[in-house]
Every structure is written in structure tokens, then in C-alpha cells.
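pls ignore typos typing on phone
adenosine-5'-triphosphate + seq
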Amino acid sequence: MSHAIIELRDVTYAFPDRDATLNGLTFHLHHGEKLGLFGPNGAGKSTMLHILMGLLTPDQGEVELFGVPMSDDKAFEAARLRIGFLFQHSDDQLFCPTVLDDVAFGPLNQGLTRDQAAERAREALETVGLAGFEERIPHRLSGGEKKLVALATVLAMKPEVLVLDEPTTGLSPEAKERLVEILKGLDLARLVVSHDPEFLAATTDRLIAMRDGRIRPGELKPHTHIHVHEEGDVPHQH
Ligand SMILES: Nc1ncnc2c1ncn2[C@@H]1O[C@H](COP(=O)(O)OP(=O)(O)OP(=O)(O)O)[C@@H](O)[C@H]1O
Ligand SMILES: [Mg+2]
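k done
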């Protein structure tokens, strides 16, 4: 229990010919923690997630996952099988000829048989409300449908921790509500990146912010307001 599930220490990263996007960033996610991460467009949130998944290599600093230093690709490959990572852009997540193949891909990599993986995939598709989409072609789906398939790929892995980059982009209110219920029903540590404060309030316990290439611990605690007024059942904004 003493180890963090995810630990980044003093990570610096610059894209070629650019100033540093991450600049001495330190971050921990411990067992049972549910963290929401927000910050302006271009702050480096997705870059940080790509580094922690081993998709980008930091210029300086260290990544440790499940208490193991990520010293090479093999270490990352093993750790990735235990992390449910949702890309911000679903096209980065989906690359198979059918939806079923995409959702079964993770479980197959984890060592399940074809039948077991297909069963897991069907269950996950049903959970996100896409039963019947098994033979559809991922790149021809709508943006919201792609996001839901990508979420199914994450759930099908039965991961030990969730790392979700903008999980609600493109989702209708109904699909978003379904996702909130799914996440509330999962007792899993998580890091959720989102620009949607209500979603973060519903699915995480504590907020942190990214600024100047670092994590600024938020004093903010996400919370929702309940309010009552005339015509409150008509969709509206405050
Ligand atoms: N492959 C790349 N090459 C050069 N610059 C990049 C590349 N990818 C991202 N960037 C830049 O790095 C910075 C951080 O991008 P990143 O995607 O991490 O931001 P973000 O915090 O996730 O933003 P958003 O809230 O819009 O998703 C941005 O200025 C972006 O333009
Ligand atoms: Mg991003």
C-alpha cells in the first residue's frame, strides 16, 4: 500500500523545437485515489498522460508504475496491461477492422482466449450501451460512438486503475449520464482529465490543476449544487 500506483518524478519534456511543455512535474496517484485533472488547453495534460503510459519518453525525470521503475519498453508493456487508458482522440485508440476486434484486443493481450476476450468485449459494449455494434467498422462511427467504443476497450480490460483523457467529449447527455453511473459503480483508483467540472465532481474526489508545466495541488474539492426553480425540468444552463 505504501507505493503509489502512478508516480512521476521531476519530469521535463519538450516537443522538438518548442519550449518545455512539462517542466519538473511531479505527480502521484495512490491506491483508492480518485483525482480529477484540469488546466487550460495546451497546458500539457495529454502529454503527461502519454509520458506515464510510455508513449513519449521524458527528457528528464522518472516514471514508476505499480512501484516498478519504468526503465525500458518491456516494463511499460507489462504495466500497460493493468491500466485502463482512454486517449483524448478516439482515432488513436481504435485501429481494428471491427468494433469487436478493437474491444477484444486488450483482453487478448492480457492472455485471455479468443472466446473469453470476445465475451468480455460483448459485455463491455453492452455496459456502454452499444450492444449490436460488434461488427461495425470503427472508423465509420460517429464521434460519440467512437468514444463509447474506446471506453468499452478500457472497461473490457478490467483494469486496476483508470487514466481517462477527456472521456465525455462528444457524448450526448444520456451517454454522459451512463458513463457517470459506470464510473461511480467502479471502485477503482483513477486520474480523469476533463474540462467538465460537473463530470469531475461526480466521478472524482479531489481536483488538481496543471499550470506552467507542473501540477499545482488544488485546494478545490469538486461538488455539485442542487437547486430547485420553476421550469427546472427544461434543459437550461446557469
Ligand atoms: N506532437 C507534437 N508536436 C509539437 N507540439 C505538440 C505536439 N503535441 C502537442 N503539442 C503541443 O504541446 C502542448 C501541450 O499539448 P497537450 O495536448 O498535452 O495539451 P492539453 O493540456 O492536453 O490540452 P487540451 O486541454 O486542449 O487537450 C500544446 O501547446 C500542443 O500544441
Ligand atoms: Mg489534452
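The first helix runs from residue 45 to 52. Strands lie at 6-13, 22-29, 34-38, 60-65, 68-69, 83-86, 161-165, 189-193, 206-211, 214-217. more later
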